Amino acid sequence: MGSRQVTSWHGKNITVAGLGVSGISAARALAGLGAVVTVVDNGDGDAHRARAAELAEQGIEVRLGRLADGAHAGEVLPEGTELVVTSPGWKPDSPLFAAAAEAGVDVVGDVEIAWQLRGSTPGRKAASWLAITGTNGKTTTTQMLASILKAAGLRTAAVGNIGTPIVDVVTGEEEYDVLAVELSSYQLHWAPSLRAHSAAVLNLAPDHLDWHGSMEAYAADKGRIYEGNTVACVYNVADRATEDLVAEADVEEGCRAIGFTLGAPGPSMLGVVDGILVDRAFVENRQKNAQELAEVKDVNPPAPHNIANALAAAALARAFGVEPRAVRDGLRNFRPDAHRVAHVDEVGGVVYVDDSKATNTHAAEASLAAFETVVWIAGGLAKGATFDELVRKSAKGLRGVVLIGADRALIAEALARHAPEVPVVDLERTDTGAMLAAVREAARLAEPGDTVLLAPACASMDMFANYNKRGDAFADAVRELAAGKA
């Protein structure tokens, strides 16, 4: 997949697919450059109409819901369209894109637009991009990287699939030296021209296969992040698929493959030795020398998967020339977002941890591996996932399991096959009190020294608006338990 570089946006007819945050951002930026912008969206609710009214004030046409001929606005390519800019979630097989392909019109995403617009402000140098993707850990690693870059005195921001829309960042008034860019597989699919300074793929596990169509297509889109890298392609030594993506990438001459590992690192790797994060990649005589970067205890929280995140962030920072001291200070300063292996409270010698962000089996497996004995609260929308491998790998550390949500039976069946001795409580209720009941049952199963862990391995939308609300409900329930009200 390729994309033609746009040399002038003035007068160019552009269709933006989707009236979400990224769509609005791209529409406004392109209209501000003189493009003739039309936004299409199948929605037609009050929120859609309010956003459309705001865009109309800037001269942007918005087509919502059903058109006069009965077709959905988001399925019809406006006449004269020269480029389609899509929101990340729109599937590649959408009718609008089929119409664009038939008309010979390119389809790109907001990340591609941001890449083409970088450095377009007169008198300003384009910031370098350090890019991060992976099935899990993207946001945490991106935030860690931004913290390290700030500790090095660099002007930076965490952007992309996180925070402020990336088009707004590259066209805004604030100037940056380097950006920490989180990219989803969706965004990478629609960003064919992206060429990062350095990039990392943290891990690969089946996810979003309904969107990509196959694991091979999903991996290929993740691998796009390495294309054209100039300094370093960072991969996970424990996940061979990430190294394979490096081998397949077409990079700039001199770009290096840099591994990260939880074990002792070989040359051109970062790893861990006696509780110390060390660098054997960006040092003189890496065959014999290693540079201490930080201590494991500087990583918050120091769970294995989070140490891996820290090593990946450190590798990207070191590729950009950041000194070891800034790596240590940045990791010490970093505080993870809520609902990511967050310590909620300790009640009766039992620790309660919220990892509601563990919305797939790969994330849940990493979370479960971080604790010795666990009462696991799991379940929700499986999104086509299977749970046998997760249960098989995690069974030995399970004190008990409390199941909630629409697809809990799938996890129950995997537990029956691979951990039949583990006590399981199956909660059928899905009302607002379900999480309180789950925490109460988990407390009954737990013993002093155990961890009650919310790591659902499923999406939340069957019972909650999002994973944040699910995590909040868990934290509220733990507080009631601590207060003796549960």
Itemize the secondary structure elements and their pairings.
Layout lengths: L12 E5 L3 H12 L3 E6 L4 H11 L4 E4 L18 E4 L8 H8 L3 E4 H8 L10 E6 L4 H14 L6 E3 L5 H6 L6 E5 L2 H5 L8 E4 L7 H4 L2 H9 L8 E5 L3 H9 L7 E5 L8 E5 L2 E4 L11 E5 L8 H16 L4 H10 L8 E6 L2 E5 L6 H9 L4 E5 L9 H7 L3 E6 L4 H11 L5 E3 L7 H12 L5 E4 L12 H16 L4
Parallel strand pairs: 1-2, 1-4, 2-3, 4-5, 6-8, 6-9, 7-8, 9-10, 10-11, 11-12, 16-20, 17-18, 17-20, 18-19
Antiparallel strand pairs: 12-13, 13-14, 15-16
Verbal overview:
There is one protein chain. This protein has 486 residues and is an alpha/beta fold. Helix content is 34%, strand content 19%. The chain is built from 17 helices and 20 strands. A 9-stranded mixed sheet has the order 7-8-6-9-10-11-12-13-14, with helices on both faces. Strands 15-16-20-17-18-19 form a 6-stranded mixed sheet, sandwiched between helices. Strand 15 and strand 16 (350-354) form a beta hairpin. Helix 16 crosses helix 17.
